[in-house]
Amino acid sequence: MAPFLLHDSDSESWDLECEPCAEDPDASGFPDHWHSKMQNSKMMQVLTSRVDANGGLWGGCDNACRFKDVDMNLFAPSESTKTNGARQNFFAALDAFAVAWKAEDWTEAVKQRAIVERLRTQKCHVCCERVKKLSPAEQACKDEWDRMRQEACRIGDGTTPGCCNQECTERGMAAWIAISADHGTNPKRHHLSDYSWWAYHGGVPAMREEETQIHQWICLCCHMLEPTSNSGKINNPRTMERKPDETEQAFRNRKATAAIKFPKYDYVNTLKRAIGACQYPGCGRMVVRGNEVSFHFDHRVESTKRKCRCLNAKGLTQGPCHGCADREFGRVGGVSGLASNSVEATALEKDAEGNPMGRIKELLDVEVSNCDLLCHNCHLCRKPRGIARHEEFVRPAPPPRRQLLMDDRSVKNRAYMAAKHAKRKRAAEEEA
Q1: Distance CA 362, CA 398 (A)
Q2: Measured between alpha carbons, how far is residue 245 from residues 233, 239, 259 in Å?
Q3: What is the C-alpha separation between 66 and 339, in angstroms, rounded?
């Protein structure tokens, strides 16, 4: 707030300036924040955040839409596995900002506003949903991928539907959502599951040609246990062998890394076997020695997952850690982030009898206490969709292409202007 002159009626003095009040939010540093964006070869200014008189936060969309100064809730991260933690932290920061504003704690308010600006999305949720719409080619490839899995699940092991592995418990047509394509040792052009990629590299015919290279159709849990899979390969430093094309120095480095990681992986596998089975309702897939890699520790509340969130020069949670309290968990975070850390300071200590002990063990125990043990099938396929173990997933039919276009506001505007122009043209012809 700009200072103003105070009129003294007794001395007729106009040279006294009123100092801004310390409690004034504007004086405490709450100007509008803007960022620049190149759009149509022009540099545009987009509202990052604005504080209204009631302590509400507002923001603007980077796209050319009408949401240029709207409620900050429209820029919350999406409810996905990767961004759910950021979404919870975003709303927590919004609530903390409102509390700090009412309490006139301007230092805390500035801090929470910075967190909101860091976590908010650049586009509003309307534009984000518009981007999620698939093109006709992508939708066709996605339908073909679903058809392949459903057909493979229907065949199953030859007697019952499900995974083609006879020893697998993934049975019934409800298992089709967890079926994956295993190439084995056959040449692979690309993952069949990446339907967006196939839409621009041959489409459905190319996918059917790639289908001929599939060795077997198995569930995700069995796929992770295949010898050709690169998931969960744990090297025991005592039994490691030097590769034919590996130098002596490279072998020593690999062995030293394994000496740090293997005890932590072994301890985590012990915790998985102690739990005994997948904790997703209705599943019960058993954990036995040798299949621990197909089970994951899934955080009940994503925001409790410890991981490095240091920002780089662009304000993104990428790049090296700057020494935060969660640096030992890495960017991956959680149990797997700490277990896969090859820094010597994260090595697991053991007592004279070989039992795990020390600070790293305590960190793993605390992290595991915040998690449920889920098999790979339930973690990736069932929990994100909210379906029961024996409930067959039915993908909702996409709206017609015409409806997709009419949902786009820009298309509506163009259609309106075209109709208006045609009406004027007809009126001009009639007058002539």
Answers
A1: 48
A2: 19, 18, 22
A3: 47
Question: Nearest 5°: CA angle at 329, between 370 and 361?
Answer: 65
Q: Is 355 helix (H, G, I), strand (E, B) or coil?
A: coil
Percent helix, strand and coil across the chain, each to the nearest 5: 40, 15, 45
Q: CA angle 166-160-157, nearest 5°?
A: 40
CB atoms within 10 A of CB 255: 14
Q: Which two tokens stand for residue 415?
A: 């259609």
Counting DSSP H helices and E strands in the chain, the numbers are 13, 12
pLDDT level of residue 12 (50, 70, 90 thresholds): very low
Token pair listed for 43: 């540099």
- What ranges in 156-247 are assigned the alpha helix state H? 195-198, 203-211, 220-224
Exposed (0-12), middle (13-18) or buried (19+): which is 290, by Cβ within 10 Å?
Answer: exposed
Residue position matching structure tokens 């295993």? 182
- Asked if 260 contacts 342 with a C-beta cutoff of 8 angstroms, the reply is yes
pLDDT tens-digit map of 342-401: 989 899 998 888 888 999 999 999 999 999 999 999 998 888 888 888 877 776 665 555
The answer to whether 102 and 80 are in contact (CB under 8 A) is: no
Which residue's entry shows tokens 């106009």? Answer: 14
If one compares 80 and 203, the residue with the highest pLDDT of the two is 203
Residue with tokens 């939708």: 139
Write the CA distances from 220 to 150, 231, 233, 398, 430, integer angstroms: 15, 11, 16, 26, 68
Residue 346, burial from CB neighbour count under 10 angstroms (0-12, 13-18, 19+) = buried
Summarised one tens digit per residue, pLDDT across range 366-379 is 999 999 999 999 99
pLDDT in tens, 116-152: 998 898 888 888 877 677 888 998 999 999 999 999 9
Q: 248-275 and 359-369 are packed helices; what angle lies between their axes, rounded to 10 degrees? A: 50
Q: Identify the H or E element spanning 70.
A: strand 70-71
Whole-number Cα distances in Å, 368 to 81, 324, 335, 356, 372: 18, 21, 7, 15, 8
Q: Cα separation of 294 and 272, whole Å? A: 10
DSSP letters of 243-312? -TT--HHHHHHHHHHHHHHHHHHHHHHHHHHHH-B--STT--PBP-TT-GGGEEEEESSGGG--------
